[in-house]
Amino acid sequence: MGVNFRYSGIYDSLVHKALGKEFKPDASLADYRRMARELEAEWRPKEQSILFGMESATGLKFRMDVECYLITHDLFAPFSDPLTIGIHKPSGELREPKRLASILCHEAIHNLFMQHKEKPPWDIGTWRRLWPDEPWNVQNHIPVYAVLESVPPAADYLKHELGVLREHGLTNYLRAWEIASADPRAVLGSITQNTQQ
Ligand SMILES: [Zn+2]
After folding, report:
1. Which of 12, 76, 134, 182 has the most crowded Cβ, counting Cβ within 10 A?
2. How confident is the prediction along the chain (197 residues), in pLDDT tens digits per residue?
3. Tell me, what DSSP letter sits at residue 65?
4. How far is the CA of 71 from the centre of ligand 1 (A)?
């Protein structure tokens, strides 16, 4: 089990088209190759302890490798299915490999939940019951941050992510982190217990 970095010229060109930006195939491929190399060096040595840590914190198993598409558009918001990350900043520069690894950690947890989405307690229905007064984007991220806080190499990447959340004033994410980080083990315990009810 691991993460495979992928590039699809068709996917990348469609994203550019949808967002109204010119697509330059050669430059995009060169940027992808450079970033994939740097991300390999940053991520690969920590990968197995991070992925096993996520599995042991949740009791879930990755059922398949995580295919991680790197897109050369300066997409602001990454997503987890298919796991897709933009490698450029809005300024056009390439992102730092540490920043990409922190995004990958976060999205890998969403991806793990997605692989088991039919099964409570790692689903939005359970989280709605546990935190009924929070908006869905907070409910959705409390488990993510509780796991990130519980897995040491991922917790280092989380510090990096928190800097970005504060810089951009992403209050729902910060609210989810506040709830999760107060006592990550208790949060994970309350989610797990909810299965047995
Ligand atoms: Zn997320």
Report:
1. 12
2. 899 999 999 999 999 999 899 999 999 999 999 999 999 999 999 999 999 999 999 999 999 999 999 999 876 578 898 999 999 988 889 999 999 999 999 999 999 999 998 778 998 899 999 999 999 999 999 999 999 999 999 999 999 999 999 999 999 999 999 999 999 999 999 998 876 44
3. P
4. 18
CA–CA separation, 148 and 158 (whole Å): 7
Q: How many angstroms does the Cα of residue 106 sit away from the middle of ligand 1? A: 6
CA of 76 to the centre of ligand 1 (A): 13
Q: How far apart are CA 75 and CA 129, in angstroms?
A: 33
CA atoms within 13 A on the CB side of 87: 24
Interval between CA 173 and ligand 1 midpoint (Å): 8
Global pTM exceeds 0.90: yes
Whole-number Å distance, alpha carbon 26 to ligand 1 midpoint, is 31
Residue 100 Cα to ligand 1 midpoint, Å, equals 14
